[in-house]
Amino acid sequence: MGPIAVLTHLLNFAAPALGLALLVTLGAHLFMKKRPQALALPTQLAINIIASLAVLALGLWLTGRDGKIASYAAMAITCATSQWLMARGWQA
User: How crowded is residue 7: how many other Cβ atoms within 10 Å of its Cβ?
Assistant: First the structure.
């Protein structure tokens, strides 16, 4: 496999994590305006991306396949939980 194919595979693996992290982070800033944010927007986005990619990598390692629904569900739960923690959701 050539370097272009490797890059394409890596980008396709990371695309769901990047998209979900972007939507969750921007959605939190759009719909939770009254709540003071503990971290800046790029920092929250980076944390959500890292958490989502880690869960996808763990799902790939555990199942041996990419694209399992359980991995995507765990990614969504992890991303939402990390955003909730960064927004200090327990102080509502």
Answer: 10
CB 52 within 8 A of CB 60: no
**Total tally of structural domains belonging to the chain:** 1
DSSP string for residues in 18-55:
HHHHHHHHHHHHHH-TTSPPSS-HHHHHHHHHHHHHHH
Q: Is 86 exposed, middle or buried (0-12, 13-18, 19+ CB in 10 A)?
A: middle
Q: Which residues contact 88 (CB under 8 A, 6 or more apart)?
A: 35, 38
* pTM for the full predicted model: 0.88
The domain containing residue 30 runs over which residues?
Answer: 3-91
Token match 């595979």: residue?
9
Per-residue pLDDT reduced to its tens digit, 26-85 = 998 888 777 767 788 899 999 999 999 999 999 999 999 888 899 999 999 999 999 999
